[in-house]
Amino acid sequence: MSEAAGVIHDIGYQRYAGPRLGRGYVFTSLYVHSLRTAFGLGRSAKAKIFPWFVLGVVFLTGVILAAVRTQVPDAGVTYTAFVDMMAWLVVFFVAVVAPELVSRDLRAGVLPLYFSRPLRRSDYPYAKLAALATAVWLLLGAPQIVMFLIAAFSVDNMSQFWTEVGDVGPGLFYAALWAAVFAGIGLLIASLTGKRAFAAGGIVAVFLMTTPVVGVLSVMPSQTMNELALLFSPSSLVFGVGVWLFGSPDGNDNIGPFGPLYLAVTIGLVAGCVALLQARYRKVASS
């Protein structure tokens, strides 16, 4: 009776000898993939419908407002006013996109796979936050660039051109401020659940349900309370910073001497959201 003998076959597998791209490449890839996901790129046609509908609306609005500005210069249509006008639409954009970026990963249980690569636990929320903030800034900032280009080709002299440059800069900064607040709050809420419907509802609720509080406080008999009322909703909080930095769009909004407080609370809110996101993913990664 012969004994069975084992045979080792060389089928040509070799060890990887190429460059190992490391943590930075993984972070950048995750950021780019998340930004593409925000606009449905690389996904089904169904996933593209809502983000591209929002893009179409904001760009169409920007073109219309740019035409109004060229025909009626004193109409009060400013770049910062455009951002305020589009803010509520962006709330729903964030409510749809933020769960797509993080809730799906929680539900599918793929986070251990991410963290098995040269990616630190803090890198994942930073990449997702940066992608969402970039997507929101593009929604609010890119139409302003279009508005600026239309206005720039309509001016009569260089003085008017430089006036437009001075106007669009604050508008782009204001868009970045909105993007930071929207992304921080939206991603934090979405990271708490793997169910996208719950995450979307929670994001909308935070922005919409705090608005009546502002309305009540703004009609209180105390002037100080009226001036502080905008602090009690994320949307009105950023609007208050805009009033302090760029003035009230209609001259009726008054925050008194509390402009620096509005800015400090906004910065604190964004920093708090980032800190809570880090704590959230440390917990997820260790569980």
Automatic annotation (TrEMBL):
This is ABC transporter permease. The keyword Iron does not apply. The chain crosses the membrane at residues 49-67, 79-98, 129-152, 172-190, 197-217, 229-247, 259-281. Keywords: Membrane, Transmembrane, Transmembrane helix.
